[in-house]
Amino acid sequence: MNTETMNEELMTASMNIILNAGDARNLLAEALKDAKAFDFTAADNKLKEAKKLATLGHKNQTKIIQSEASGKKYPHSLLFTHAQDHLMTINSEMNFTSELIDVLKLINQKLK
Fold first, then answer.
1. DSSP label of 39
2. Three-state DSSP class for 18?
3. What is the span of the domain harbouring residue 34?
4. 3-state SS record for 45-87
5. Is position 3 within any domain?
6. Helix 3-36 and helix 78-111: axis angle, to 10°?
7. Is there a catalytic annotation at residue 82?
8. What confidence score (pLDDT) does residue 55 get?
9. Which pLDDT belongs to residue 75?
10. 12 in a domain, yes or no?
11. Residue 81 in contact with residue 65, Cβ under 8 Å?
12. CA gap 28, 60 in Å, rounded
């Protein structure tokens, strides 16, 4: 595989990771907004969809890492590093959002 094709593969994977992570972040914000309105069905659905998108991003990352582990040599890519940062951040945000939704569910139960 030539360098240009490898660069394109890495760039495509990076952009897919960034886009999936960004879409997941938007869904997490919406899920939290729903949860603050005590609409937990909508919040849970958006949280599940965000997790699916993060998983897609993770699969793109894993494909590149496995290819590299199998001997394919990619050039260093700041864009790929940036994409990995987005993915790591969205996973942290997902955990935090999930916990906040659980807290809001407890508050809602106490109000009833």
1. -
2. helix
3. 17-111
4. HHHHHHHHHHHHHHHHHHHHHHHHHCCCCCCCCHHHHHHHHHH
5. no
6. 10
7. yes
8. 97
9. 87
10. no
11. no
12. 21
Residues near 79 by beta carbon (within 8 Å), at least 6 away in sequence: 10, 11, 14, 15
Q: Which member of 58, 76, 82, 86 is catalytic?
A: 82
**Measured between alpha carbons, how far is 87 from 59 in angstroms, rounded to an integer?**
11
> For residue 42, what are the CA distances in angstroms to 36, 67, 76, 87, 111?
11, 38, 41, 23, 20
- Asked whether residue 7 is assigned to any structural domain, the reply reads no
Q: Is residue 75 part of a domain?
A: yes
The domain tally of the chain equals 1
Specify whether the CB–CB gap between 32 and 98 falls below 8 A.
Answer: no
- CATH number of the CATH domain containing 102: 1.20.58.80
Which amino acid is present at 20? Answer: N
Centroid of chain to Cα 107: 27
> Are residues 21 and 85 in contact, defined by beta-carbon separation less than 8 angstroms?
no
How does pLDDT run across 5-36, given as a tens digit for each residue? 878 999 999 999 999 999 999 999 999 999 99
